[in-house]
Amino acid sequence: PQGGRKHPQQEFIQIDTTNILFIVGGAFDGIEGIVKSRLGDKTIGFGTNSDEAAEVDPKNIMQAVIPEDLLKFGLIPEFIGR
């Protein structure tokens, strides 16, 4: 088949992914705490942002993840940028 929008004349290459490890295919256990901390959830003091924290439903906390959260979680910038 033909290529995508950037290179329409280029051919696609099929790759067997059987033996490829996908590094970021996990559940990101613990990142919820980083997001909640950033949003001000359960924070006492002047640094709280209760409006932003109130907007995020606890069931959808992963939708509030931003690149800075992934950096604090421990991912390297090269993965975050992709």
Automatic annotation (TrEMBL):
Pfam families: AAA_2
Domain of life: Bacteria
InterPro entries in the record: ATP-dep_Clp_protease_ClpX, ATPase_AAA_core, P-loop_NTPase
GO cellular component: HslUV protease complex
GO molecular function, one term: ATP hydrolysis activity
Domain (ATPase AAA-type core): residue spans on this chain: 4-82
Swiss-Prot/TrEMBL GO biological process terms: cell division; proteolysis involved in protein catabolic process
Name the UniProt record assigns to this protein: AAA domain-containing protein
Organism whose genome encodes this protein: Lentilactobacillus parabuchneri
Organism placement in taxonomy: Bacteria, Bacillati, Bacillota, Bacilli, Lactobacillales
